[in-house]
Write a structure and sequence with these properties.
alpha+beta; HVO_A0556-like; single chain; 1 helix; HVO_A0556 family zinc finger protein
Length: 52
């Protein structure tokens, strides 16, 4: 999982959103993960990236 700095988080999230999860066949979407902004798989819930 990538941990993004504030400035690069938007770019990273934009690049990851809509891609396939590396752990299952689900798609990545933006949502909160343990209180942080993140890109998370809709199927398995695994975060691909997160930022405070």
């Amino acid at each position: 999982m990538a941990r993004a700095e504030r400035g690069g988080a938007r770019e990273l999230f934009a690049r990851l959103e809509g891609r396939a999860c590396t752990y299952c066949d689900g798609d990545l979407v933006r949502e909160r993960y343990k209180g942080d902004r993140a890109v998370v798989c809709v199927e398995c819930g695994t975060p691909a990236a997160r930022a405070p």
